[in-house]
Amino acid sequence: MAFFSFILIVITLIVIFCNRVRKVRKEKAVAKAEDIIFEELSEHLLTYDTVTDIPEEEMNDTVCKLNKLKNQDKVFRRTMVHLMVYFQMNLRGTVTNIISSAYSRLKLREFTRGKLRSYFWFKKTQGLTEVQGMRDGHSLPEVQNLIDDSNQDVRVAAYNVLLKLKANNCFDFMVDEKEELSEWHQIMLEDGVVKTPGLEIPDFKIYLTTECNSIILLCIKLIVYYRQYNAVPKLLSMLDHEQEDVRTKIIEALGSLNSDNYEERLIEKYPEETIKNKSAILIALGQMGSTLSGDFIKKKFLGAKNFDILENAAAAIISHPGRLKDSLTANMSELDEKHQAILQHFEEPLNAYGSV
Amino acid sequence: MKKRILIVDDESLVTKYLKARLKQENLAVDIAVDGQEALKKAKNHKYDLILTDLMIPNVAGRELIMQIQESMLNAETPIIVLSSLSSDELIVDVLATGVKDYIVKPFSVNVIVAKIKQLLQLSLKAA
Questions:
Q1: Rounded to the nearest 10 degrees, how much is the dihedral formed by the CA atoms of A111, A112, A113, A118?
Q2: What phi and psi, each to the nearest 5 degrees, are found at residue A182?
Q3: How distant, in Å, are the alpha carbons of A131, A161, A293, A343, B60 from that of A297?
Q4: Which residues in chain B have Cβ-Cβ distances shorter than 8 Å to A95?
Q5: H or E element: which one contains A274?
Q6: Residue A168 is part of a domain; what is its CATH number?
Q7: DSSP output for B27-89
Q8: Does A190 share its domain with A123?
Q9: Which residue has the higher pLDDT, B7 or A330?
Q10: pTM of the predicted model as reported, rounded to 2 decimal places
């Protein structure tokens, strides 16, 4: 038994050692390839301001050299794509046209498209990242094929590329996606929408009818970001949504949009809601800041039996733009110690936004 | 004598490329990959311009700017900030520290080179 254990340990150590040696060798090979390719690019192509400034002969010679390297081994090919995508993502202006042109002439697009057709999901997402990084509109048909992929990571990456490349149907996923998106996917797509300059922004309320709750949550975030006030009636009509998370987001959105015309509806909804949503309603009413909401918040603050309610009512009082805080703090001595302490706590700027 | 520039950024490819482009303009370029290295270099050399990222290892970008502005050799050296952080408040805040310009990444190399040349000419005139 001891002998077998010894053999097993020795084999494990050998495997670890071999993997480390392989990793170091690979890193060295990548670094060497990076240096060679960088030198070729920076000395012969990226020194010019525009593509048209590059003498045809120099362009051909450089592409020829890079082509040889590309065909030499896969480390060069991968590093070449990595470098070009990197430059395309980190630089702006006419230099990016030079990179696009070299990428095209080196037929690296075909290499990326090969990844999009791969059997493995991670290869597909890698290919999609490259298409996105290179802003390669020519590969859109291949990207479109991936929006029906069985893997959600691939689908979301494809949606993101369509957004970044401003494809005509880039918002169709809000109707077509049936599987719930993770928080991370939502962040990726939100980022894809808000950080794509010149993207034509639709009326997100039209997508609120989907059965996919995570898409509804994403739409609500985008409605708030783009201040789409015309979505408020639709949001109000969804205050009875069966999912607590969706209702929370709607309440928060109404507060952020400062929709004070609808605060009666929120006050009406208050008794039916969970503690979490009651807290969210108080914060939202605090943001709206009318006299009606002020009286309501004050009542809840003074009569709170639950600490969450007390805490969020205090936060709402402090954030209330009216005279609610002043009217309470003027009579501070009439408040008990607990109420005084929690109001003082939320007067600290770092605590002012409450716990919701 | 060649004008000397210090680039502080931990993104090696961008700095390498910037260095290559600035060398073409007949400028001498030093690179520091973190705040400590930058402070060490700024302590030993007088630079004509410093180009720095805000998110760098070891010393925060704004701390670095303050320390350079208080240093003996480079107190008057113009500083350009190069960062991917693009909120208005931050840019206004950083410009208020006395830096000459704030460029948001991704950036155009041609624009940076033009700005550097302009600043170097201005400081030459001022001298």
A1: 90
A2: -75, 170
A3: 52, 45, 6, 13, 42
A4: 108-110
A5: none
A6: 1.25.10.10
A7: -EEEEESSHHHHHHHHHH---SEEEE-SS-SSS-HHHHHHHHHTSTTTTT--EEEEES---HH
A8: yes
A9: B7
A10: 0.79
Q: What pLDDT is stored for residue A356 in this prediction? A: 41
In contact, A276 and A248? CB cutoff 8 Å: yes
Q: Are residues A273 and A328 in the same domain?
A: yes
Mutate to test the interface with A, among B104, B108, B111, B115 (most CBs of A within 10 A): B108
A24, part of any domain: no
Work out how many domains chain A is built from and give that number: 3
Q: Do A92 and A126 share a structural domain?
A: no
Residue A215 resides in a domain: no
Rounded to 5 degrees, φ, ψ at A120 are: -90, 135
How close A42 comes to chain B (CA, Å)? 7
Are A93 and A131 in the same domain? no
Within 8 A of A34 by CB-CB distance, chain B residues are 13
pLDDT at A13: 95
With cut-offs at 50, 70 and 90, classify the pLDDT of residue A224: very high
Element (H, E) at A338: helix A337-347
A119 and A71 housed in the same domain: no
Q: Does A257 map to a domain?
A: no
Token match 């996917």: residue? A185
What are φ and ψ of residue A203, in 5° steps? -80, 105
Residues A46 and A95 in one domain: yes
Residues of chain A in contact with residue B11, where contact means CB-CB under 8 angstroms, are 90
Domain that holds residue A145: 111-200
Of A42, A83, A94, the CB nearest to B110: A94
- Residues 6 or more apart in contact with residue A117 via CB below 8 angstroms: A142
Q: Does any domain span residue A315?
A: yes
Asked if residue A302 has pLDDT above 80, the reply is no
